[in-house]
Amino acid sequence: MDIPLIDFASYDESDATAMRKLAEQVNAALTGIGFMSLKNIGIPPELQAEIFAASRAYFSQPEAEKRKLGYSSAEDNFGYQGVCEESLEPGQPPDLKEALTMRDLDSKLSLEWPDPDFRDLLHRFYRECLSAAYRIMRVFSIDLDVPEDYFVKVHSGENVTMRLLHYPPLSATTHGQLGAGAHTDYGMITLLFQDEVGGLEVRDTDGQWHPVTPVPGAVVINVGDLTERWTNRRYRSSMHRVQPRGGVGDRYSIAMFVDPDPQTEVVCLPSCTDDAHPPLYPPTSAGEHILQRIQATHLGA
Ligand SMILES: O=C(O)CCC(=O)C(=O)O
Ligand SMILES: [Fe+2]
């Protein structure tokens, strides 16, 4: 089973027919497996290549160098996290990955960065990803029958987090651990860029795991728990994980978690409920939900 592949080349805010067609395709993907691949999303391919090269260079440095951007707290959710410092499936052995986590990058530019060129490249990519996420949200709003800027205006960036991820090769001591434990994402949508190595898997509603095979040039999109709550489980926040792969070397991916501003109240949308479908979840505050989920993944927290 391949996840649906949708071409965003036809995205045009002034063409209602084209937008409605995209909304139908997105609806079919997200009410099904909850994952889709998008091509022609508008992020320059050469920028994607540049950011992957910079990520490889960053992670190849000595530990002390990486820790110059040290991780402070779940509240800040910013900085370097080493291998086995996080467990996306709380209670299970820690994840075999390291990460550079960057929440609200706009507000971090004046920090002491070891490499300002790296900072500027990260920021350029972050802004491109956020613009792409806004386009996807406008398509959601058509399908979900809310004003076009309904989602865009509650995603200013405060809870938007970009993560460079590096999954080192398997070693004899890592038996039974996952690259990333089984989890759902926490917020609205995730843009995931993966290299050609593979290992990402998504679970369907029957409990079967399926590989999310890398498609050159396409971005994997999935929705998180808050979207599932907004849509009364019409769009599915599907469980996924990363299997470590033997004999294939390092894997790199970049995840952009586009999540609502902390004060956002996430309430079941009118188009997703009726007498036969009462709201499945009570209203929740985006900030509290996301912070609790992050705290649960930190070992010893
Ligand atoms: O690296 C990947 O392919 C997926 C990572 C992921 O699901 C996450 O960090 O939430
Ligand atoms: Fe995830």
Q: What's the helical proportion of residues?
A: 25-40%
CATH A-level architecture:
Sandwich
What's the alpha carbon Rg, rounded to whole Å?
19 Å
Residue fraction in strands: 15-25%
Averaging pLDDT over every residue, what do you get? 94
Shape: globular
Describe the strand arrangement of the main beta sheet, using strand numbers: 1-2-10-7-12-5-4-3
Write the H/E string, N to C: EHEHHEEHEEEEEEHEEEEH
Bound molecules: 2-oxoglutaric acid, fe (ii) ion
> How many individual helices?
6
Structural class: alpha+beta
InterPro entries: DIOX_N, IPNS-like_FE2OG_OXY, IPNS-like_sf, Iron_ascorbate_oxido_reductase, Oxoglu/Fe-dep_dioxygenase_dom
Family: Belongs to the iron/ascorbate-dependent oxidoreductase family.
Enzyme class: oxidoreductase
Protein name: 2-oxoglutarate-dependent ethylene/succinate-forming enzyme
How is this structure best described in words?
The chain is α+β, with helices and mostly antiparallel strands and 301 residues long. The chain has one domain (5-297): B-lactam Antibiotic, Isopenicillin N Synthase, Chain (Jelly Rolls), CATH 2.60.120. It has 6 helices and 14 strands. The protein has helices spanning 16-31, 45-59, 63-66, 116-144, 225-230, 286-297, and strands spanning 5-7, 35-39, 78-81, 98-103, 160-167, 180-183, 189-194, 200-203, 209-211, 219-223, 240-242, 251-258, 265-266, 284-285. The strands form 3 sheets. The chain has an 8-stranded mixed beta sheet. It has a 4-stranded antiparallel beta sheet with strand order 6-11-8-9, with no helix packed on it. Strands 13-14 form a two-stranded antiparallel sheet. The longest helix is centred in the middle third of the chain and has 29 residues, at 116-144. The site of fe (ii) ion (FE2) has 3 residues, from loops.
